[in-house]
Structure formats: C-alpha cells, structure tokens
Amino acid sequence: MMKRWYLYAALLLACTACSNDDDTTTAPPQRGKPSVTLLASVDGLGDNGYNDCMVNGIFGFYEQTGVVVRLLLPTDMAEAETMYKQWLTANAKTDSAVIIVGSGDYEKMVSQAPPTLTGSGSRILLTESQATISGVSTVAINRYGASYLAGAMLGDFPVYILAAAPNVPILETAIKGFKDGHAAHQGKEAMVTVGYLKEGESVFANPGLAYRSMSDRMTADSALAVYKETVFPLLGGSYVGVQQAMGDNLLNAGLLVGMDVDRSGQGNNVPFSLVIHIDRIVGNYLTDWRKGQPWLQTSTLGLAQQATDIVVDTHFAPNMLIESNSRGMTTAEAWQQQYAKYKEEAVRSEK
C-alpha cells in the first residue's frame, strides 16, 4: 500500500505539472500501446474517500498489468471540458486507450461532446451516471440498499442527514433509502432531519463549509447543549469537515456514520461506515477491457452486487459521553448483530 501511494504521489505531481502544458497533454500515446486515463472530479483527489478509492483501483490494475496510467486534474469544469476534448482528439485513431470520467458532474459535458473513436479497443467510461450516451459506457452506484441498511441499524437514534446539495439524484436516492430503513425500525423518539450545504459544483470538495455548517448545527440551541444526533453525511470530500467539527465539540454525544470508505479508527464516534467499492468496480471494468470483453452501455450496481456495503468498526468503543446516549449500542458486536439482522431486508428493498 505504501509503495502504491508513493507512486500515486509521483504521478500526481507529474500530471499536475503537465496539465497546463498543451503539447504534453494532447500528445497521443503510441498506437497499439494501451493506456488508461482518469479525468478526476474537480479538486477531488486527496479526499481520503471516494476519489482516492477510485485511484487505488486504477493503480491496482497498473500493478497487475503495467498499463500506462495518466491523471488529468482539473481545477474547474471549464478545464475539465478542455482536457476531455483534448483526450478525444488525441485518441481518435488509437486502438487501445481508455478514459475514465470520474464524476457524474461531467454527464452533460460528455453527452455534448460525442466521441469519434475509430479504434476498436478504445473506450470511455463515465461513472455515477445512468445516462445513455452514444459511444460511452456509464455505471451508476445505487446507494439505496446500503442507506436503507444504515437507517435500519440506526432506527433507535435521532439522525441528521447532511447532504452536499439538493436535487442531486444519487444523494436523493440515498436519503430516501436511509429514511425508509429508519422508518421501518424507528424507535419511539427517533426522527430524521435533512439539511443541505448549498447548490454548486464545488460543494463536494468544501470541508470548510461543512465544518461551519455542522458547528452551527451543534450549537444552534445553546452553547452549553449536548449534541445527541447521529450524522449521516452525504458530502463527498467535504466529509472531513463534519468529522473535524464533531471532534472539536467537547459536548458532542452524537455518532457519525463513516462514508464512501471504511473509516474505522478515525474516531470513537464512528460505529460503522457505508462503503462504495469504486476501486473494485473500476478495476473490473479495466480487467474486462484488457481481456477484450465488451462493456454494457449502462449498468447500475448496488448492495446486491457488492458494490456497496456497511462495514462495522471492529474496535468501536465510544467515550463516556457518547456511551450515555448510545442506548446499549456500545460495542462492535452489537452493531454487527444489527447488520446481520437487517442485511437481507435491505437487499430486498433495493430490488
């Protein structure tokens, strides 16, 4: 793992340096030599979450095959569009190049720039999209089932869902799943409240905004009030802002659901994480490509396909303040029992 991150850091510096060099960025790879390019989400890498997990999957493929890997790191949507169009131009006639467009935010951009790839082995994969786009394969992660499972496991707890922005389909699906699971197993005084940061493309990479929003939430009634809600964050890289805000509040008695990757050991208030196996998903697509196997034009993967899951922190041991509000759920074994109790129900609900 350490070797992979040294390699990742080296390539990150190299790709950042060449992202402003048109000659380097647009230079086509040698015909017949396979290459994989990731067009990362805007300011997405370095989030220790979903985006970095995707990079892990790509570098895992590199370690197995030695296929050349390139990273494109846009700072805004305009730069992302330029990079994407340059890749299309540079690889129009190559026969073994893949670009992974790593964000559903790019759906409109991709649909408005039809690819003209003539090489039989070159492909485009757009993640977090259910759109049907000519010449492009799309894969969407259905978070409903895993969110339902999280909601069922937290049925006895009051919950605050903090989402990045309203009217984002993947977030609204997760919100509905969580609320359905929670309602099906709701305790007497448990309730679910939903809040949003704001609208805008940069909201998924704005931990400072998330920190301020969460701090305001915890001190809304009184500076001396003990905060008792469990937080279900749907924030992308902004997750770390909520994590820090809850850690900085000495009167925090609430739990925090880890998101996107396994957050075990990142705090005594994280009982479990909702994980997205985007590394495994991307790795499988790339493996099929190298074998010459076709991709589906559209695909949706969820809990039943092991694209999502809940991972309990095996070392969960809340501090005394949290324990006094945990209603008996003070051990990893207790959370694992909740997981086993509701897992199949959550899979059925997703179908």
Instruction: Report the portion of residues in β strands.
Output: 15-25%
Largest sheet: 6 strands, parallel
* Strand count: 12
If you compute it from the alpha carbons, what radius of gyration comes out, rounded to the nearest whole angstrom? Answer: 21 Å
At the first level of CATH, the class of the largest domain is Alpha Beta
* Main β-sheet, spatial strand arrangement: 2-1-3-4-5-11
- Tally the structural domains: 2
Named at the architecture level, the CATH assignment of the largest domain is 3-Layer(aba) Sandwich
Please tell me about this protein's structure:
- The chain has 351 residues and is of the alpha/beta class.
- It has two domains: 2-141 and 278-301, 3-Layer(aba) Sandwich (Rossmann fold); 144-271 and 313-350, Rossmann fold (3-Layer(aba) Sandwich).
- Helices cover 40% and strands 16% of the residues.
- It is built from twelve helices and twelve strands.
- Strands 2-1-3-4-5-11 form a six-stranded parallel β-sheet, sandwiched between helices. Strands 7-6-8 form a three-stranded parallel β-sheet, with helices on one face. A three-stranded mixed β-sheet has the order 9-10-12.
- α3 links the parallel β1 (35-39) and β2.
- The chain starts with a helix and ends with a helix.
List the helices and strands and how they pair.
Blueprint: H1 2-18, H2 22-26, E1 35-39, H3 50-65, E2 68-72, H4 77-90, E3 97-101, H5 107-111, E4 123-127, E5 137-141, H6 144-153, E6 159-163, H7 169-184, E7 192-196, H8 207-218, E8 230-234, H9 239-248, E9 258-260, E10 272-276, H10 278-290, E11 298-301, E12 308-312, H11 320-323, H12 332-350
Parallel strand pairs: 1-2, 1-3, 3-4, 4-5, 5-11, 6-7, 6-8, 9-10
Antiparallel strand pairs: 10-12
